[in-house]
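Dear Dr. L.,

I hope this message finds you well. Following up on our conversation about the binding site, I have prepared a predicted three-dimensional model of the protein together with zinc ion. For your records, I am including the exact sequence and ligand specification that went into the calculation, followed by the structure tokens. Please feel free to forward this to your student if that is useful.
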Amino acid sequence: MVTSIERWLLGVLGSPSHQRPFMRTRVWWTAIRRASQSTSRQRSSSDGRRARVDWARLMTGTDPTEKLWRDILTGQEPGLLRTRAIFNRIPSDPRCKMCASPFGGAGGALVRLLGHSRAPRNPMMCWACARDLKKHPGGAEIDLSVLFADVRGSTTVAEHMSATAYKNLLHRFYRLASEAITTHDGIVDKYLGDGVMALFIPAFAGEDHASRAVEAARALRQTLTAMPEPRLPVGIGVHSGTAFVGVVGAGDDSDFSALGDVVNVTARLGSSAAAGEVLISIATAEAARVPVETATRRQMELKGRSERLDTIAL
Ligand SMILES: [Zn+2]
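The resulting structure of the complex is given below.
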């Protein structure tokens, strides 16, 4: 349903081509809802009653919405892509990591009228998306690239300035990281103390998500280097592989995120990279067609893993 405020806004925006995407914010959630409801109905009719606990689903991990989630995350479901394309045209960062509605500036004030204000428990997401994710949990295993940027030696940096000055410096880093990531079609997944984690999902970053992640890492390093003093020393790691992407957690604490080995390894790469260094795995380098012959190779031992990880430093 489109509210009267949305109708007014659509009128202001003008062309009919603008109208559908706002409505489609709800269309792709409706598709997920239908998928889960139809499976629920099938269960009810075969069992004669609705199962309160779906043990089969819990034990096997099968998810009736998995195909739809995969379609969404690999860019086969056009509703979310169109919604993001429209919201990305309205300034300014930061944005909801699902629908890309802006939280900042006049654009943020505008979309708040449509119910896309920041979710109180999940500030990386708008209220409308957080509510719908909670209602329709799910996800799928997909190939993606992950970026992790980490402030090196933050204790030493913070020691030489006031707490407020350090907070301001960190906020500037968050803003620059968010710009570099979203410009390259990544999603800021989390701000983790002194670090930023980003996902490059095929639906939004394209099949060449590894290249986009590497470009984002290079762009972030460049802007951080050009930053006036005092600068934050930041190391960046990028890795590519398969992860579960979707709704993680339960109830009010659920969040759209990624889980799996690729996420853990990227966090280790980010925390191992020296200040000003971009450390990428060979998997990412090959996918992004970064020449590895002339690069500085480094084998990394990762805690809890039997095999060493081949990386190159850019
Ligand atoms: Zn949203």
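In brief: The first strand starts at residue 139 and ends at 151.

With kind regards,
A. P.
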